[in-house]
Amino acid sequence: MAVPDWPNTFGYNMFLVPFDRWIGQFGIFEEHAHRLVASFVGFLTMILAIWLWFSEPRKWVRRLGVTAFVLVVAQGILGGLRVTEINPNLGLIHGAVAQLFLILICGIALVTSGWWHRVKVGREKEASFGRIQGAIITVLCLVFVQLLLGATMRHQHAGLAIWDFPLAHGQVWPATDAASVANYNEKRLALQGELHASKKLLDESGNPVTFLATGKEIQAWHVWMQMLHRVGAVATLALVVALVVKTRQQLGQAHRFTRASYV
Description:
Blueprint: H1 28-55, H2 59-85, H3 88-111, H4 114-118, H5 123-155, H6 178-198, H7 220-251, H8 256-261
Helix pairs in contact: 1-2, 2-3, 3-5, 5-7
């Protein structure tokens, strides 16, 4: 990690770090700026939760606001533990909670919008919604699983296991036996060496000077993880499109959930 301590930054209060310690410092700037932006988001979420609690008549919406605040606090703690513990699994959880928080904030924005209140829904259409509610929840869960797969790839460097698309190592489905995996590792090291050399990213000893995990070997499960992520992306797209069509058939074009599904 570019900044090794938390909640301080190089021993300074997070909000009082001298500019020359992080402005223009590659890696440090990105991480410290991330902390500042995250703190601002947490402050805004606290204001949102308080505003909803005192002004929103719907109890379930007030609870959404409280949940959002709890999530953003948990997200901040997870981010700090990711620094102090240096545990890739914490990074996976940190990424997953971020997606949940984003979805929740978007949901709050939707149900508190003027458009949501303007659209009238008859009782017959509300009853029809119950018939597709299970499908909506299922698709949302599948999308979240896809996000988890992507986060796992990111933190385990599995994205480097296959570098061509739409094929994978020149095949529709790559082999994962020991000989094939060893061949993938040899090819990747050679490819990365060429890329580093062409961009002059080697030091005098011939070692890469970037943060690429060139020494992390590809394993068979890395290949499987990326292929599952690819298949999951196609399946998720197909299911989302099918759900949009089903929602329109069941609820009609004018229903607010039908319109929201287009987004």
